[in-house]
């Protein structure tokens, strides 16, 4: 059984779907209201009143899809994921399905990549099935993976059984366009293997927002190329565009920025067009239009903005404000309720007007605060716009003077206008209320009505023409047909002026190099900026003093990449902030920066070795860093430290000035002492971090005869089968000078015995081209020098290419302990795990404890805090470069601490949060369901921080088997407004859920509870199952009927009309719970309010119905030719102005103009066509509709085939008495028309005095044999056939000879 609210909702949803254009809403509001109790007439297929929308969320967040479904019987709603039914029981805690008051929701907990899918919701009942779709895209936090877009699931594609490889080639670069142009972005996509009928999912994003095909953008996939076409560029199209190609195994993305510059101004010096025009707070006759200011002001300050509006379906733009406004927000009033509009904005400075902005989305003028159902009726395609009609359901009494408006406040105040808003009173009349706004100067009590002529319909109002700087108070009165109510409480004094300040200038601007054509600009945010919209960045070539905008769409971040710069030029940058009040002052100019590729400090050198050693110095050599930072290395700095008894000392600088060679002599050492060395590389970006300490070397003089090792080996000119090896000669020559070099080679993974010489004869040069290589093989090299004494020690080896796939893994155990873990499977007996922080070995275990076991090592944080932020690395000695690092940032530390806290203090999972529902008699049930809770779990019920206990008012229950926890209240009182909380505890785990019931939410729930309680009590006695309604027969008989329930023999039914009892006359019946009252041949006197009262000792119930007169009969069409054109008319027996009359031409409703008009004269309804043309031919119809049924008659207007009077009759005939008169005229028409002669609107019968003839179907004659004075008057000839009727008039004036004299 439905409640009254649900029945009324279903009734009006059904009635609205049947409305046609121009339907009088008053009749529907009355007729359909009483029709709602007939449940059979309510049955209709499911409809989605609100469809679920797509979401893009971060990983581990929750997402909720919800929709509102109407239909009778109640539809069964099922959710699908990729066309597979979602079963919450199969995935405990993952999915939560809820349904309440026709609102259905699907909640996905802690989203992961597998939740990226297309979701479908299907609603089905006995009348049909309907589905709608929404997509969920799950994104991963930046820093975890390179891509910002979510990753699809991995694995084999089940429908193909293969794994796809996707590559995006020939992608689009950073693009620049101009407003009004068309731009295409495209990229070639290679999918391997190539299947002819396989198509990946192709998606385009702008600023991480998924794009949909519209009139502004078109998407195309040709099989190997994805293309996005922006058909008409506007500044709203500026942003970062991302192409995403998704298969079931992986995805590829490609991104580039698109910049849109302003179109050339129509007037030189005019500003650029505003952008992002949106509509907010739309009501019946009022909407707030907002926009963003342009970056280009044309060289002169913008004086303000003009807002234009256009009614949907027309092309006429009208200006909304007479004077320009500077605030980027404007209230537009005077809208027509029920119509739809679009808006645009133009900027103006002293040079002229800008181009108009892109038009806003369509907005309908309607009041969102009312309980309003919106119905959109599709019109023919050539209109390309919907009409919007609405009904407001009121359940209040008639004839009541409305009360005081509530919660009046000033929501916005500028120097141009002040916006008031309030809420409707609880006491109001049946027909609705309107409002009068009053103002007075603060400090006085002289109230002045602002809208004296027309009251406003919306509970919002904008006041203009207030004196700037003066303080005002405001109040509002309600009015309806019963009168004007008392005023609301007055507002506090409001001073007219801008309340929102222009933001302060941004702080220090810092540019850094990025690429050859771009610079990264960062700045300090504006301080204390309110309602900040974003920032504009401007650039100027040093010395030009001309700044150009880098972006034409505001950015909210404090970092932006400025593209399109000239390589080699020096630029300065400045930034402006903006909000609705305007643009800030420019920040200070940045330091000049030359546009070129960015550089960074180099990584540490490695491979430190000793090339020569004497008593007090050593010559060191090292290898170039693997990454030099994008700029040439300018030099190296060497440090050394003494090692005493295995304990390293402090580091000392060996050189103050950088050395350019990768070899350096460290002097002032002590003989026979042990030393370690480290080297740092430097470039334009600065000095890099030092290398790892070298091995410990003893400072003692070398005395061997052969030369030392060559050093600084480099491989260059690498080809498929050749390379060039460069090296430097040894520093230590031996007893004799070096006279040649030998180069050795082996495969990287070969044994030591595999070394073989490349050259049999020593070479004298310091380079060698090697040609004996095999493509795809990895090699290592070494070089030996010789002198007369022999061949010396071999050089160090260039490290072979090796990819280490093992990474440091961060783990948090059940006790919340955070640790970093690293594993290596290539250990040697001498290998050690060396943990470092910021590339310095960790020796102090105050903050970190290292534990190593077998092939795994663990670094445990003792007490994680900010002091632990840094770069942690683990290197395994005596391996082929096995190492890894992990960066612990402030954000990552915070995330780890949160997870650690969750492990230490677990939470009881909930299947459903705390919710409320109404039960029989209006009882209120608060409940939630825990996913898992033991029998020892404890529940505490809290209201507004006060603990509740079991009693008469509160009844608690905890089902430990199902985990359902509930609290039931018999009713809601005013003191029950607040926050209800259920606190759960189960051992160490805790949780709580709260529900806030305040304001309108509480009042609505309280009202519905009271209504259900009253309905329950009403149904304990005789009551109406179907309220009073009526039917009208074609014979204009009216049957009033209703259906009652719970009656007994003593139940009495009394009928009333306009408050007077109607006596039973034999037509009153009472059988099988149905009451009928018949009114035969209804007329205007029978119109009125009929009421029936059911009562007995258990109570009574009342139902009323309003009856109207109806159209009894409708005669066929007639067609009459007039001087202006053609008139079509019909006659009705009864007509009431409340009935809807519609004229149609060729099955389309006629749009009335100055040429085509309609009207009513008495019981004649007519359509006048002035100056008819060939287009006016065809089928015409007139249709009556009274909300329950109607009548329709048609006629064919066929041009020359209809009956016509071709001519021959004079306008006036003056004739002497006793003379004879003969008039003739030509008649045309097929079939042959009927001819009737009329005198003074009465038909003339042929006799001896009047002789009328119609010959050959063409010639009509009229003869008066002897004229006398009684023959004077107005005569007409009326011709008609099945295609139409036409008449011609003439006047006969008879005079006597005597009177003429």
Provide structural commentary:
- This is Myomesin 1.
- It comes from Oncorhynchus kisutch (Coho salmon).
- Its main location: cytoplasm.
- Keywords: Cytoplasm, Immunoglobulin domain, Muscle protein, Repeat, Thick filament.
- This protein is mainly β.
- It contains 6 helices and 101 strands.
- The strands form 25 sheets. Strands 47, 48, 49, 51, 52 and 53 form a 6-stranded antiparallel sheet that branches.
- The longest helix is centred in the C-terminal third of the chain and has 20 residues, at 999-1018.
Which of globular, elongated, flat, extended, rod-shaped describes the shape?
Answer: elongated
**Major sheet attributes:** 6 strands, antiparallel
State the end-to-end CA separation.
93 Å
**Per DSSP, what share of the residues sits in E-state strands of 2 or more residues?**
over 45%
Tally of helical segments: 6
Oligomer: single chain
Cα-based radius of gyration, to the nearest Å: 46 Å
Helix content: under 10%
Low-pLDDT sequence parts: 1-28, 33-39, 142-160, 371-397, 799-804, 1109-1116
Total beta-strand segments: 101
Give the structural class: mainly beta
Average pLDDT:
82
Per-chain topology:
Layout: H1 4-17, H2 25-35, H3 39-42, E1 44-50, E2 55-58, E3 63-72, E4 76-81, E5 84-85, E6 95-100, E7 103-108, E8 117-125, E9 128-139, E10 165-169, E11 175-178, E12 183-192, E13 201-206, E14 209-210, E15 217-221, E16 225-230, E17 239-246, E18 251-261, E19 275-280, E20 286-292, E21 304-311, E22 317-319, E23 329-333, E24 340-349, E25 352-353, E26 363-364, E27 372-377, E28 387-392, E29 406-413, E30 417-423, E31 434-441, E32 448-449, E33 460-464, E34 471-480, E35 483-484, E36 494-495, E37 509-515, E38 518-523, E39 534-541, E40 548-549, E41 559-562, E42 570-579, E43 582-583, E44 593-594, E45 606-613, E46 618-623, E47 635-644, E48 647-648, E49 652-653, E50 663-666, E51 674-683, E52 686-687, E53 697-698, E54 711-716, E55 723-728, E56 740-747, E57 756-757, E58 767-770, E59 779-787, E60 790-791, E61 809-812, E62 818-823, E63 833-837, E64 840-841, E65 848-853, E66 856-861, E67 870-876, E68 883-888, H4 890-904, E69 910-918, E70 924-930, E71 938-943, E72 946-947, E73 954-959, E74 964-969, E75 978-986, E76 989-997, ...
Parallel strand pairs: 2-9, 11-18, 94-101
Antiparallel strand pairs: 1-3, 3-7, 4-5, 4-8, 6-7, 8-9, 10-12, 12-16, 13-14, 13-17, 15-16, 17-18, 19-20, 20-23, 21-22, 21-24, 24-25, 24-26, 27-28, 29-30, 30-33, 31-32, 31-34, 34-35, 34-36, 37-38, 38-41, 39-40, 39-42, 42-43, 42-44, 45-46, 46-50, 47-48, 47-49, 47-51, 51-52, 51-53, 54-55, 55-58, ...
Helix pairs in contact: 1-2
């Amino acid at each position: 059984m439905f409640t009254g609210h649900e029945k009324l909702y279903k009734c009006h949803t059904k009635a609205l779907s049947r409305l046609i254009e121009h339907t009088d809403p008053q009749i529907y509001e009355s007729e359909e209201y009483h029709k709602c109790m007939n449940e059979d007439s309510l049955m209709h297929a499911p409809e989605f009143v609100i469809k679920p929308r797509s979401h893009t969320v971060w990983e581990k967040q929750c997402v909720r899809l919800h929709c509102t479904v109407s239909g009778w019987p109640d539809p069964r709603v099922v959710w699908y994921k990729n066309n597979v039914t979602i079963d919450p029981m199969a995935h405990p805690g993952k999915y939560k399905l809820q349904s309440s008051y026709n609102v259905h929701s699907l909640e996905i907990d802690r989203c992961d990549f597998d939740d990226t899918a297309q979701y479908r919701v299907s609603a089905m009942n006995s009348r049909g099935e309907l589905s709608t779709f929404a997509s969920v895209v799950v994104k991963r936090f930046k820093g975890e993976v390179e891509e910002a877009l979510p990753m699809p699931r991995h694995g084999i594609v089940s429908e193909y059984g293969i794994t796809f490889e996707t590559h995006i080639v020939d992608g689009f670069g950073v693009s620049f366009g101009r407003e009004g142009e068309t731009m295409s972005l495209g990229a070639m996509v290679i999918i391997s293997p190539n299947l002819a009928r396989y198509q990946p999912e192709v998606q385009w994003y702008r600023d991480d927002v998924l794009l949909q095909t519209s009139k502004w953008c078109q998407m195309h996939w040709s099989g190997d190329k994805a293309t996005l076409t922006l058909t008409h560029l506007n500044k709203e199209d500026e942003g970062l565009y991302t192409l995403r190609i998704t298969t079931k195994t992986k995805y590829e993305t490609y991104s580039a920025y698109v910049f849109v510059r302003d179109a050339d101004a129509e007037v030189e010096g005019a500003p650029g067009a505003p952008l992002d025009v949106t509509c907010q707070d739309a009501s019946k006759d009022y909407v707030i239009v907002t926009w963003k200011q342009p970056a280009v002001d044309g060289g002169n300050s913008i004086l303000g903005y003009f807002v234009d509006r256009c009614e949907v379906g027309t092309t006429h733009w009208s200006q909304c404000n007479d004077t320009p406004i500077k605030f980027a927000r404007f209230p537009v009033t005077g809208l027509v309720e029920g119509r739809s509009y679009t808006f645009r904005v133009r900027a103006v400075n002293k040079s002229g007007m800008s181009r108009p902005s892109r038009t806003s989305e369509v907005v309908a003028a309607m009041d969102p605060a009312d309980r309003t159902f919106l119905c959109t009726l599709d019109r023919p395609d050539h209109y390309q716009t919907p009409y919007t009609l609405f009904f407001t359901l009121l359940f209040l009494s008639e004839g009541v003077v409305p009360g005081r408006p509530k919660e009046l406040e000033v929501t916005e105040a500028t120097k141009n206008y002040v916006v008031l808003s309030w809420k409707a009173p609880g006491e109001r009349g049946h027909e609705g209320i309107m409002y009068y706004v009053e103002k007075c100067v603060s400090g006085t009590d002289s109230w002045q009505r602002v809208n004296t002529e027309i009251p406003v319909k919306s509970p919002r109002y904008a006041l203009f023409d207030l004196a700037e700087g003066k303080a005002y108070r405001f109040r509002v009165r309600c009015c309806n047909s019963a009168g004007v109510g008392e005023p609301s409480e007055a507002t506090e004094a409001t001073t007219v002026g801008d309340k929102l300040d222009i933001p302060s200038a941004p702080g220090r601007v810092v540019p850094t190099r990025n690429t050859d054509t771009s610079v990264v600009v960062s700045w300090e945010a504006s301080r204390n900026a309110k309602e900040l919209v974003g920032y504009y960045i401007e650039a100027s070539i040093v010395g030009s003093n001309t700044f150009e905008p880098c972006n034409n769409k505001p950015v909210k971040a404090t970092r932006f990449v400025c593209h399109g710069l000239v390589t080699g030029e020096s630029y300065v940058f400045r930034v402006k902030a903006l909000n609705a009040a305007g643009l800030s002052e420019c920040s200070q100019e940045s330091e000049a920066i030359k546009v070129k590729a960015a550089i960074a400090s180099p990584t540490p050198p490695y491979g430190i070795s000793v090339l020569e050693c004497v008593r007090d110095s050593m010559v060191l050599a090292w290898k170039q860093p693997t990454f030099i930072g994008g700029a040439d290395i300018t030099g190296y700095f060497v440090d050394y430290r003494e090692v005493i008894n295995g304990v390293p000392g402090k580091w000392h600088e060996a050189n103050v000035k950088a050395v350019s060679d990768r070899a350096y002599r460290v002097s002032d050492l002590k003989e026979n002492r042990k030393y370690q060395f480290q080297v740092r590389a430097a470039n334009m970006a600065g000095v890099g971090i030092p290398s790892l300490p070298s091995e410990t070397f003893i400072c003692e003089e070398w005395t061997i005869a052969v030369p030392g090792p060559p050093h600084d080996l480099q491989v260059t000119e690498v080809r498929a089968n050749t390379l060039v090896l460069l090296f430097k000669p040894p520093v230590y020559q031996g007893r004799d000078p070096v006279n040649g070099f030998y180069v050795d080679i082996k495969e990287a993974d070969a044994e030591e015995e595999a070394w073989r010489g490349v050259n049999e004869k020593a070479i004298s040069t310091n380079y060698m081209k090697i040609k004996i290589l095999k493509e795809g093989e990895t090699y290592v090299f070494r070089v030996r020098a010789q002198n007369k004494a022999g061949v010396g020690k071999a050089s160090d080896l260039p490290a072979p290419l090796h990819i280490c796939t093992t990474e440091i893994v961060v783990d948090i155990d059940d006790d919340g302990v955070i640790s970093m873990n690293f594993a290596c499977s290539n250990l040697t007996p001498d290998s050690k795990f060396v943990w470092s922080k910021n590339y310095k070995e960790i020796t102090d275990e105050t903050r970190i404890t290292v534990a190593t076991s077998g092939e795994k090592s663990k670094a445990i944080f003792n007490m994680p805090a900010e002091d632990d932020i840094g770069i942690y690395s683990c290197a395994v000695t005596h391996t082929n470069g096995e190492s890894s690092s992990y960066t612990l940032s402030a954000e990552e530390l915070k995330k780890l601490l949160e997870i650690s806290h969750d492990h230490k203090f677990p939470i009881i999972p909930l299947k459903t949060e705390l919710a409320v529902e109404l039960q029989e008699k209006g009882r209120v049930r608060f409940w939630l369901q825990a996913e898992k809770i033991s029998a020892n779990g404890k529940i505490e019920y809290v209201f507004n921080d006060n603990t509740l206990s079991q009693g008469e008012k509160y009844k608690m229950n905890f089902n430990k088997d199902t985990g359902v926890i509930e609290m039931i209240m018999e009713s809601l009182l005013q003191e029950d407004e607040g926050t209800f909380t259920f606190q759960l505890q189960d051992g160490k785990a805790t949780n709580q859920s709260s529900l806030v019931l305040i304001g309108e939410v509480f009042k609505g729930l309280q009202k519905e509870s009271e209504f259900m309680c009253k309905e329950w009590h009403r149904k304990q006695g005789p009551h109406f199952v179907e309220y009073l309604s009526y039917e009208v027969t074609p014979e204009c008989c009216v049957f009033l009927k209703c259906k009652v329930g719970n009656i007994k023999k003593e139940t009495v039914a009394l009928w009333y009309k306009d408050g007077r009892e109607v006596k039973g006359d034999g037509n009153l019946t009472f059988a099988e719970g149905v009451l009928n009252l018949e009114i035969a041949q209804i007329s205007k006197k029978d119109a009125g309010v009929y009421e029936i009262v059911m009562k007995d000792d258990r109570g009574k119930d009342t139902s009323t119905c309003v009856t109207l007169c109806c159209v009894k009969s409708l005669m066929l069409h007639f067609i009459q030719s007039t001087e202006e054109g053609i008139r079509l008319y019909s006659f009705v027996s009864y007509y009431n102005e409340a009935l809807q009359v519609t004229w149609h031409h060729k099955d389309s409703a006629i749009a009335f103009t100055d040429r085509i008009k309609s009207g009513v004269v008495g019981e004649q309804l007519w359509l006048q066509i002035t100056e008819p043309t060939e287009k006016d031919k065809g089928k015409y119809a007139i249709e009556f509709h009274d909300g329950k049924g109607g009548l329709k008659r048609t006629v064919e207007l066929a041009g020359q085939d209809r009956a016509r009077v071709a001519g021959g009759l004079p306008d006036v005939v003056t004739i002497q008495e006793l003379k004879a008169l003969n008039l003739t005229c030509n008649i045309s028409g097929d079939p042959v028309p009927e001819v009737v002669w009329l005198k003074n609107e009465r038909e003339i019968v042929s006799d001896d005095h009047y002789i009328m003839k119609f010959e050959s179907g063409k010639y009509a004659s009229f003869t008066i044999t002897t004229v006398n004075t009684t023959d004077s008057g107005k005569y007409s000839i009326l011709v008609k056939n099945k295609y139409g009727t036409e008449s011609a008039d003439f006047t006969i004036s008879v005079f006597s000879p005597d009177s003429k004299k």
